[in-house]
Design goal:
Elements: E1 7-12, E2 15-20, E3 32-35, E4 38-41, H1 60-66, E5 69-75, H2 81-92, E6 97-103, E7 108-113, H3 120-130, E8 134-139, E9 145-150, H4 157-166, E10 171-177, E11 182-187, H5 194-200, E12 206-208, H6 214-246, H7 267-283, H8 289-297, H9 302-320, H10 323-329, E13 335-341, E14 347-354, E15 363-366, E16 375-381, E17 383-386, H11 388-391, E18 397-399, E19 404-405, E20 410-411, E21 416-422, H12 428-441, H13 447-477, H14 492-506, H15 510-529, E22 532-534, H16 537-542, E23 548-551, H17 553-557, E24 563-569, H18 575-586, H19 594-607, E25 618-624, E26 628-633, E27 636-641, H20 643-648, H21 655-666, E28 669-676, E29 679-687, H22 694-703, E30 707-711, H23 716-726, E31 730-732, H24 737-749, E32 754-758, H25 764-769, E33 772-776, H26 781-786, E34 789-791, H27 797-831, H28 836-839, H29 845-864
Parallel strand pairs: 1-4, 23-30, 23-32, 30-31, 32-33, 33-34
Antiparallel strand pairs: 1-2, 3-4, 5-7, 5-8, 6-7, 9-11, 9-12, 10-11, 13-14, 13-15, 15-21, 16-19, 16-21, 17-18, 17-20, 22-34, 24-29, 25-26, 26-27, 27-28, 28-29
Helix pairs in contact: 2-3, 6-7, 6-9, 7-8, 9-29, 10-15, 12-15, 13-14, 13-15, 14-27, 14-29, 15-27, 15-29, 18-19, 21-23, 27-29
Length: 878
């Protein structure tokens, strides 16, 4: 290995990419551990490559700062925003915890911590000390694992099975439940897979076992629990309704209820007490106990019954808000057709297997009408594939040899043979589900408003209830209102206490806590179904404030499939030598223009009589960000890039070269110049056409008050030509990745909320620097990792969709706040009896309880309306 050259194996977004540090020094983010002279990295926390010492070793300080771990916890007692704030503050004080996200609806917490300073056990103990009970759901990122049930294994076999599995090739861990004879096996997908593990345990009757998802199971159990409570409360409430409202109106059938069992009690009162007690202490035990206890004293049984029914509806409605995740998770088919070949490539058999048994590098046959089971590359056949379920793109896309296919999409009319590349939690479908779950678990900035309101709301309500009780009591005692206002069987004290209880009941801030998270849950799920993946609640909320959108050029505004349209010689170098130099150098480059230059140069070699492939060896290869690439071939210094690169290396640009480049730039073409030993030998004219409809999209953004800018590493003339064609007036050209990021920061300092749209490695700095980074889905993994929003369709229409969805979501959040606060603002004065002196209208505690539960239900239903969102259409008409 040469000095100052480092090989990196970087699993970014669960896809392995090989990087050379010198080639991509400015754009690689990683942390990792030294492993056999290399760096194995994992993107969890951004750390620049500059942390590496000049000598080529990673410092201990670097690793101590960079290594992190995550764990997910289930916390059952989180029911109110006040408890959530208490837990968050407690977690933030735990030594070693870097970040903690707690979600009220899922009752889950995701904790990012330093494993050198704390452990999952210590975090659980700290949570217990705060006063909460927590269970560990998972540790680390989603792992490759398979769940099996052993039908023919005895309890005595389990120990031997575990030992043999732990020694098997590719197995990383083994977990067992001896009594149930179930085993969970973690594995490395490049070395083994679930099918191999199943065959390994075949003699024990191993079969796949799919454990129910904990969240779905608990949501179902919660809904069933409230349903049972509702039915239970109805069983006791119906007789009370008869005793209180029906029989007294049907004399003489109800006269017996007035018979006294003692001086203070009648038969009717005793029966009401007997039937109300189970409703209060069993059905009502899970609902604001202090309030319902007071209500029970006055025989107001209806509160529990109404609250149970409304809370049942609320739980069911909240379950609907994450339906998109369930639908996404079930897009993949249950089975797939596996093709088995011998060592000579001859087909041995076609076997239908469970999709969970597919392993990396398997060959899968997909017939017309079947779903693609996992991600892969087409190695044979041709067909149209409908990807609308993943990307939201309505049109079918033709797939042939070499094209990628995505799990969950539908093969329409031909047979495809696919080599699998990503399986299990590594598939695009799984990643989408993980991103949406992450977005739903994150907290939006708007939630802080609800937290602040709730912080002061409870003491204010308690004071208001006390003042209400005191006011009515004093007014009654000194005779400020007539005695006939007091209902039969009450006195001044009881009437005042009822008004006070109604204030306490109706002012519950539950709806306020639901306003933001429910809207975020629905919107992130809806965005995923439209092909717009939003990584966090902050991104979803911030996008609505965007006033400036900055676009990259190549692959973003343009199609991203550039073609060479002209080749010119500028010296005595023969065409074959120029082509050989271009092929050798550009083959090492990942720039979008490299591939078309290489392909066209190969065609030119064959055209001029070359019979063999170019196999020139490149030494001292180097990347010049924003300029091009270079290296040495047969002791000759070769540069391939733009005029800027040539000027930096003092290469003479003749008038002939200048005229050629200017003419191409006027036609929106990019000139790729080839210099050999300090002299320009030839040039390639490369054309990358703008994406269809781009001009209409830019016009639409302008019509809604958003300015647009192009920022590119291409030359100024070409950039202006492309920008002029799509309607962009402001252009920053000839910029390297660092300059792009600095320009974004400069725009932000002027008070702009900036969104950056890009697709390449060179855009990752700018995407991270922007307020909202938007990555084109077909772009590189590092760009997608750095972005806040990913457009799966690679269609610029979805930039508008992301911004519009954000605006609709924020509008819905504020509408939810109005719903939540409206109930309290209007209901509390009525509950306090403000209308009673004028209209005789009084809000009993049971009705106040029903209104409180209805407020939460209305907020959830308001958020569910986001499921009806439709992307803006008819850009061509703007």
């Amino acid at each position: 290995m040469e000095a100052n050259i480092y090989d990196l194996k970087v699993p970014l977004n669960s896809r392995d990419l090989d990087y050379n540090l010198e080639k991509d020094r400015a754009n690689l983010f990683f942390y990792g551990e030294v492993w056999r002279g290399r760096v194995r990295s994992n993107v969890e926390e951004h750390r620049t490559i500059d942390t590496i010492e000049a000598g080529g070793f990673l410092t201990d300080e670097f690793f101590n700062q960079a290594i992190t771990s995550t764990c997910r916890l289930r916390i059952s007692q989180i029911t109110y925003p006040a408890k959530l704030r208490s837990l968050q503050k407690g977690l933030a004080m735990v030594h070693g915890v870097k970040r903690a996200t707690v979600h009220l609806e899922f009752k889950e917490a995701k904790v990012l911590f330093d494993p050198n300073l704390t452990t999952e056990t210590l975090i659980l103990k700290a949570i217990a000390d705060i006063g909460f009970e927590a269970d560990l759901i998972s540790v680390g990122d989603e792992a490759y694992e398979v769940h099996l049930k052993l039908d023919r294994a005895s309890s005595g076999d389990m120990g031997a099975i575990k030992s043999s599995l732990e020694q098997a090739v590719g197995v990383t861990y083994v977990e067992m439940e001896v009594v149930e004879r179930m085993v969970t096996v973690g594995y490395e997908p490049d070395r083994t897979g679930p099918r191999s593990i199943l065959q390994f345990l075949e003699k024990y009757g191993a079969r796949l076992y799919v454990p129910p998802k904990r969240r779905e199971l608990e949501q179902h159990q919660e809904a069933c629990a409230y349903r049972n409570l509702f039915l239970f409360s109805c069983l006791f409430s119906v007789p009370v309704v008869a005793f209180a409202m029906v029989l007294p109106m049907l004399p003489p059938y109800g006269d017996w209820l007035n018979f006294r069992v003692c001086k203070m009690l009648t038969i009717g009162m005793v029966l009401k007490w007997i039937f109300c007690t189970p409703v209060q202490f069993l059905a009502g035990g899970r609902i604001v106990p202090c309030i319902t206890t007071e209500i029970c004293k006055y025989g107001c049984f209806g509160c529990c019954r109404h609250q149970c029914s409304l809370l049942l509806l609320e739980v069911m409605a909240k379950g609907k808000s994450s339906d998109a995740l369930g639908k996404l998770a079930h897009l993949a088919p249950d089975t797939a057709c596996l093709m088995n070949f011998d060592d000579n490539g001859s087909l041995l058999s076609e076997v239908e297997i469970d999709t969970q048994l597919i392993q990396r590098n398997d060959i899968i046959k997909i017939v017309p009408g079947a779903k693609v089971p996992v991600d892969g590359i087409v190695i044979g056949g041709e067909s149209n594939v409908n990807e609308s379920t993943i990307t939201g793109e309505a049109r079918s896309i033709c797939k042939s040899t070499g094209d990628k296919v995505i799990g969950g999409t539908v093969n329409e009319n031909g047979i495809l043979f696919v080599k699998t590349t990503h399986v299990g939690t590594d598939t695009t479908l799984s990643r989408i589900v993980q991103l949406v779950e992450s977005a739903q678990l994150s907290r939006a900035p708007a939630q802080k408003l609800a937290d602040q309101i709730s912080k002061f709301f409870v003491p204010v309500v308690v004071v208001a209830a006390f003042v209400t009780w005191l006011g009515w009591l004093i007014c009654g005692e000194i005779g400020l209102y007539p005695k006939h206002w007091i209902p039969k069987g009450m006195d001044e004290f009881e009437l005042a206490l009822q008004f006070s209880i109604s204030v306490l009941v109706i002012a519950c801030p539950c709806a306020l806590g639901l306003a933001t998270p429910t809207a975020i849950m629905v919107a992130s799920g809806k965005g995923a179904s439209l092909g717009v993946l939003i990584k966090g609640a902050s991104a979803l909320q911030n996008a609505y404030k965007v006033k400036t959108v900055v676009f990259d050029k190549t692959g973003t505004l343009t199609v991203g499939r550039p073609e060479v349209v002209s080749v010119v010689l500028f010296s005595t170098f023969p065409m074959q030598e120029v082509c050989d130099a271009a092929i050798a150098i550009e083959s090492n480059s990942d720039h979008p223009f490299a591939k078309p230059v290489v392909e066209h140069a190969k065609k030119m070699r064959r055209k001029f009589g070359a019979r063999s492939e170019c196999c020139k060896r490149v030494q001292n290869f180097e990347v010049f960000p924003g300029g091009g690439v270079g290296g040495k071939i047969d002791r000759k210094t070769v540069l391939v890039g733009n005029k800027r690169l040539m000027r930096v290396h003092n290469v003479d640009i003749t008038p002939q070269v200048d005229r050629y480049t200017i003419e191409n730039e006027r036609l929106a073409q990019t000139c790729v110049l080839v210099a050999i030993n300090g002299k320009i030998a030839g040039g390639f004219g490369v054309l990358d056409t703008p994406k269809p409809g781009t001009k209409a999209i830019i016009s639409f953004l302008r019509s809604i008050g958003i300015s647009t800018i192009m920022i590119t590493g291409d030359n100024l003339a070409t950039a202006f030509a492309v920008a002029r064609g799509v309607g962009i007036n402001k252009v920053f050209a000839e910029m390297d990745p660092i300059e792009k990021a600095n320009q974004i920061k400069s725009l932000k300092t002027r008070g702009n909320i900036v969104a950056m749209v890009g697709d390449g490695v060179n855009d990752s700095h700018a995407l991270a620097a922007a307020d909202v980074g938007i990555a084109i889905g077909a772009g590189t993994n590092i760009a997608i990792e750095a972005a806040d929003i990913v457009l799966m369709r690679s269609n610029l229409e979805d930039v508008v969709t992301a911004i519009d969805l954000s605006r609709q979501t924020v509008y819905r959040i504020w509408l939810n706040y109005i719903w939540a606060l409206g109930y309290n603002i209007i209901g509390m004065p009525i509950a306090a009896g403000i209308l009673y002196p004028f209209f005789g209208i009084r809000l009993p505690p049971w009705l106040a309880g029903a209104c409180m539960a209805a407020s939460s239900l209305s907020v959830v239903c308001s958020s569910l309306l986001l499921k009806c969102y439709r992307r803006p259409l008819n850009f061509q008409s703007t």
